[in-house]
Amino acid sequence: YHDRDGVIWMDGEFVDWREAKVHVLTHGLHYASAVFEGERAYGGKIFESRRHSERLHKSAQILGFDIPFTVDEIEAAKVETLARSGLDSAYVRAIAWRGSEMMGVSAQNNTIHLAVAVWHWGDYFADKMKGIAMTHAKWRRPDPKTAPCEAKAAGLYMICTLSKHAAEREGFADALMLDWRGHVAEATGANIFFLRDGALHTPTPDCFLNGITRQTAIKLAEARQIEIVERTILPEELSTFSECFITGTAAELTPVRSIGDVDYKPGEVTEALVTDYSDLVNGKIMMPAS
Ligand code: PMP
């Protein structure tokens, strides 16, 4: 990713893509004092852009720092970076981190940096509409008393990369992570939904990100008069569901074909919501009122 043409917005200026560097003694690198966003633009417009910028601010606050750019300034940076990329459909990555003045657990006065990069990123999964095969992760989502789960914080992704790599080594596309209690939580970069008897069941987001795509999928389902049941889901229940899909900015709505030895059929409800989501992000339908 570092070796390509283009520009990246860094701390208020555009720098050449290959020159967008940080020092090796950056606090964010050593101690994961970084928060980020993943967003997608469709037809030149970033979907739910402002909510992502607001979440970035909130994530930073949870980690105890203030981003030295307002939400409006971040919005402007994203719009300009997207425009400069020349891309219509693109992935947008905003990241804020503690700089390199002090090295140690304490870094009270380190400069806070912000960067925005935009690049082409097609489907997150190959053959997405066939449904992905998932395995079980050995790592669990931490207790909210152990880690600040509501922040989209770089540090929380250590568990995700461990789980994703383990899944990929065995030929799976992704892994289902349980939470610290052993309840079904989410995939390594997306939330999860299950269908049973016409109702959608999804875990209560009390120790993982309540994704913007997750909230959008709920609105789309409600607009179709599909009942949403947000609750504790136990792994023993996985075989009682007929359809399953995951939601995330990168994953969009991706059907799940199996989790471990349980099979699902990407069916009518999943397909309808995949279409609705695509229509929504492409501006063909309006966001349903909640
Ligand atoms: N959970 C995790 C761990 C994620 O990385 C993501 C992607 N940001 C999500 C859920 C879904 O969040 P969103 O729909 O806001 O992209």
From TrEMBL:
Its cofactor is pyridoxal 5'-phosphate. Its EC number is 2.6.1.42. Keywords: Amino-acid biosynthesis, Aminotransferase, Branched-chain amino acid biosynthesis, Pyridoxal phosphate, Transferase. It comes from Henriciella pelagia. Pfam families: Aminotran_4. InterPro entries: Aminotrans_IV, Aminotrans_IV_CS, Aminotransferase-like, B_amino_transI, BCAT-like_C, BCAT-like_N, Class-IV_PLP-Dep_Aminotrnsfr. Acts on leucine, isoleucine and valine. It catalyses: L-isoleucine + 2-oxoglutarate = (S)-3-methyl-2-oxopentanoate + L-glutamate; L-valine + 2-oxoglutarate = 3-methyl-2-oxobutanoate + L-glutamate; L-leucine + 2-oxoglutarate = 4-methyl-2-oxopentanoate + L-glutamate. One of its GO terms (molecular function) is transaminase activity. Pathway: Amino-acid biosynthesis; L-valine biosynthesis; L-valine from pyruvate: step 4/4; Amino-acid biosynthesis; L-isoleucine biosynthesis; L-isoleucine from 2-oxobutanoate: step 4/4; Amino-acid biosynthesis; L-leucine biosynthesis; L-leucine from 3-methyl-2-oxobutanoate: step 4/4. Gene3D superfamilies: 3.30.470.10, D-amino Acid Aminotransferase, subunit A, domain 2. It is an enzyme of class 2 (transferase). The keyword Transferase applies. Belongs to the class-IV pyridoxal-phosphate-dependent aminotransferase family. This is Branched-chain-amino-acid aminotransferase. It comes from the Bacteria. The lineage of its organism: Bacteria, Pseudomonadati, Pseudomonadota, Alphaproteobacteria, Hyphomonadales. The keyword Transferase applies.
